Amino acid sequence: MNYRDIDASIARIDAHRRKRAAEAEAATEDACALEWSRRHPDWRYTASFGQWHEYDSEAVLWRHDDRLRHLTLVRELVREVGPEKLHKAASVAGIASLARSNPGVAMTASQWDADQWMLATPGAVIDTRTGEAVPDPKRCYCTRQTAVPAAPAGTPAPIWQTFLERVTRHAPDLVDYLQRIAGYALTGSDREQCLFFAFGGGGNGKGTFFNTVTAIMGSYAHVANNDLLLATANERHPVDLATLRGARLVTASELRPGAKWDEQRLKSLTGGDPITARFMRQDFFTFRPQFTFVVFGNHRPSFSGVDEAIRRRIRLIPFEQTIGDGERDPQLHEKLRSEYPAILRWMIEGGLKWQREGLITPASVAAASAAYLEAEDSLGQWITDRIEKHRPELRVFAKRNALFTDWNAWVADNGGPKWSAKAFYLALEERGFTPGVRTGGERGFRDVSLVASDVGHAGGGDW
Questions:
Q1: Distance from chain centroid for Cα 422
Q2: What percentage of the chain carries pLDDT values higher than 70?
Q3: Pairwise CA distance, residues 299 & 301, whole Å
C-alpha cells in the first residue's frame, strides 16, 4: 500500500467519523425511540398494565420484563448512536417512554392471552382443541406457560394412575370426572360456569391431586387468598382480581370453620362475565375470565340463600378415602414429579373428552352436591315445613306480611339468613311464587297459604 492509499483510507475514516458525529448530534429522543423499536422487534408495551414484555423464542413465551431489561437496551443504543446530551437518566427514560407508543409496540390488555384454546408449554403452544402444536406460537401472545412440556400421546403415568385409583376408591367414573375437570381447566373455557369444591377430611388425596395439577400448569395456575370467595368485612382491592387475568386454574384451600360464601362474588367469578380490575397504581382494564375455580378443604362454608344460580354452579366432589399415616408415601410428590409430562398429556386428553362429551357428572358428585345445597337451603326448608300449595281455582291468597312474620319466627328457631322484607319477597318470586294484589290493594302471593292456617283464603271471590 502506498502513501496515497493510506491517505485515502484515513480520509474515508475521517469522513465516516464526521458523518457519525453529525448523525449523533442530530439524534433526538424521538429518533432513538424509533431506532430502538427497529432493532428490537420482539418487545411490546401495555399501558393499562404499565408493563413491558419480550418474546422468548426458545421458550415460545412473552415474558414480563420484571428486571427492566428494556432500559438496558435503551442505554446501549444511546451509548452507540446518541450524543453526549442524551447520556443521562432523563433521556433514557424519555426514549423508553416514547418507544411505548411506536407502531407494533403498543398493545392493549385484550390482545394478551386472547385465544383461550392456546396453551403455552415449554417449546410449543398447543391448540387444546386438537392436542397438537401450532405453527406460529409468537402470534398467540401467551404470557403464561405450563411447567413442563407435554409427553407424546399414549405415554403411561403408572404412579399417577395408582394414586387416582386409591383416592377415588377405584371409582372409574370419578377418575374420569377429575381428568375432564383438569382438561377443561387447560382450555380456558368458561362454558361450564362451575365452582368445583373438593371436600373431605385430611389425608384423602384431594390436596395431592390439585397441588399436582397446579404445579403442572405452572403460571397458568393461581393460588388465591382463601377468602377470595368468602364473605368478609374488609373491602377487597382490585389487584385481587387483576392477578386472575390469563389464569386457567384458580385454587383456594384451608377454608376457615364457620365461613360464609360471598354469593355475589361466587356468581360473578364463575359466570363468565367480563371482569374489570387494575394493578397497583395502574389504569383499570377489562378482561374475560378464562379460569376454572377449584376450592378444596375440610369445612363447608354456609350460604345465605340457595337460588338456581347457586345450584347450577356448585359441584361438590367427595374425597372419602382416608389414608392413614402408616400408609402414606412421603416421597409421592417427588415420584409424581417425574411423571408431570405424562400427566399433562393425560390432562390434555381430558380436555378433548370434555369437548366431545361434556363433564359427565358422577352420581356420587351429584348426590353430594344436592345434599350440601339442601342442607344450606333455609328458604327451601321453610317452604317445605310451612307452606301449602293450592290449585288456582281455589283462589287462595297469602298476605305478604303474614309470610314474612312466619319466616322470621322460623329462622329464630331453626337458623337462616336475616333478610329484609323486600329481599324475602324477591326470593319467593325466584322460587316460583306468584305475586298478586287482592281487592282493596292488599298485596301477597296467590295459590299458597301457611300450613294449618286460613291466611288470606279468598273463597271464590276476587283477588
A1: 33
A2: 91
A3: 6
CA dist 13 and 21 (Å) reads 12
Q: DSSP secondary-structure letter at 436? A: E
The alpha-helical segments, DSSP class H, found in 40-125 are 69-81, 89-99
**Chain segment 7-44, per-residue pLDDT in tens:** 566 656 655 555 555 455 557 999 999 999 999 999 99
Whole-angstrom distance, CA of residue 359 vs CA of residue 354: 5
SS3 call for 119: strand
pTM: 0.83
- Would you call 183 exposed, middle or buried from its count of C-beta atoms within 10 A (0-12, 13-18, 19+)? buried
Domains of the chain, first to last = 3-107 (no CATH), 158-375 (3.40.50.300), 378-450 (1.10.10.10)
Q: Read off the pLDDT of residues 105-147 as tens digits, 9 standing for 90 and up.
A: 999 999 999 999 999 999 999 999 999 999 999 999 999 999 9
Beta-bridge partners for 389: 448
Q: Is 435 helix (H, G, I), strand (E, B) or coil?
A: strand
Contact 319, 205 (CB under 8 A): yes
Contacts of 254 (CB under 8 A, 6+ apart): 226, 297
